[in-house]
Amino acid sequence: MAGRAAEHSEHTEGGTDPEPAERGAGPGTDAGPGVTVAERVRRVEGGLSPAERKIARALTANYPAAGLESASGLASQAGVSAPTVVRFVARLGFDGYRHFQQSLREEVQARHASPLTLAPVIGADSPTSELVEAAQQVSSATLSQTFTALPEQEFDQAVGLICDPAKRIACFGGRFSQLLAEYLDLHLRLLRPGTLLHTAAPGRDAGFRLDLSRRDVCVIFDFRRYQDDTVRLARHAHERGAKVVLFTDPWLSPVAEFADVVLPARVEAPSPFDSIVAPLALVDALVAAVHARLGAAADERMRAAEEEWSGEAGV
Description:
By secondary structure, the protein is an alpha/beta fold. 49% of the residues lie in helices and 8% in strands. Helix 8 runs parallel beside helix 11.
């Protein structure tokens, strides 16, 4: 779904530090804990009427700000009637427009949460057994929620873009998420040619920026609280005609506004720091799908790489 709105960002990277939001699904709904409005839209988009699809596009193109307008304001943006907006909100599972907006306000707080505002699930006097149990429960929940909410059509689109031999693949992220970009790149370069990891500091990547074109697919990692230089480079890639595949959290990086594919993952952790457990698992799933799609060509490249390594080891 291109045209969606939304590390100073990830973990300890910049931004403001409001009080943490309750990680719930919103009052009066049965969508389950931690389910965002954007995720609700993805769940029902296949059954929306043409008018409701206009609302979904208007909402996700300027997310979550568009939903914080009045019902008539959102209706005006979408070019539909206010009663249609009310019906759309009900379809998402909310009791009313007020509850819909309350959920979005909680998301705004969650987007800006930091280690200083997120409370750990264990205390200083907690025994190791409690830590282990908490870590297991939180990690299991984030993995389950991530893959349950995975937008399969967009995942398939990401696989198709990365497997396209006519495309060059560039991966990059922010202060913490660059680890995920490097992890993905290390695998992709074994599976296909024409991949790179972009690591240049802001202001020192003119060559990369100039060379971006419709031939490129940029796989971008950006998690709360969203890193400005990552967002700027992603926007530039989009403006140059490159395809943008975004890995982000459920609250959606601003990169989502111009991404061609958005793959959200849960980031809750037993500590006050966001976790990369679920995002990493999602990357692993992407690598597996790319390997399967490329088939014999990928295996032959991997075999050639093994021979190169063996030769170097014998030197």
